[in-house]
Design goal:
single chain, 124 residues, mainly beta, 3-stranded antiparallel beta sheet, 1 helix, 6 strands, binds zinc ion
Length: 124
């Protein structure tokens, strides 16, 4: 089991083996959060809160972070919202396929002179 960091990652629940998002909920004095990777609508969030689960905004595009939603900011939903995990989770770990990282295009070779790009009659 890897230690949680501020950057969210997918993991599995050790009890029910559901897919969970694991992250720290803050940069300092943080708690480890295990959340279900299922975005919630307003009604589902209300149900989660009434059942005692905390909810989090999922921030970022590449390095995702979980930020606790407090009651002051619950009227707006600019980010996906997830709730703390409860067993059994809604998404089994086997439902999430591990896709290989996209191939990184090779960097252009800036040191090799290629005459093909220079139109005929170009003075330089
Ligand atoms: Zn679980």
């Amino acid at each position: 089991m890897k230690a949680a960091t501020i950057h969210a990652r997918l993991d599995t629940c050790p009890r029910c083996e559901a897919a969970v998002i694991v992250a720290l909920d803050h940069h300092t004095a943080a708690l480890t959060v295990r959340a279900d990777p299922l975005p919630l609508g307003a009604e589902a969030e209300l149900h989660a809160r009434l059942s005692g689960r905390l909810t989090y905004n999922v921030l970022g595009r590449k390095d995702l972070q979980l930020h606790l939603r407090d009651t002051e900011h619950m009227t707006s939903r600019p980010h996906p919202v997830v709730a703390t995990h409860t067993c059994p989770g809604p998404i089994p770990a086997t439902a999430i396929t591990s896709t290989p990282a996209p191939a990184v295009p090779a960097e252009p070779d800036l040191f090799t002179h290629i005459d093909d790009d220079v139109p005929d009659g170009f003075p330089f």
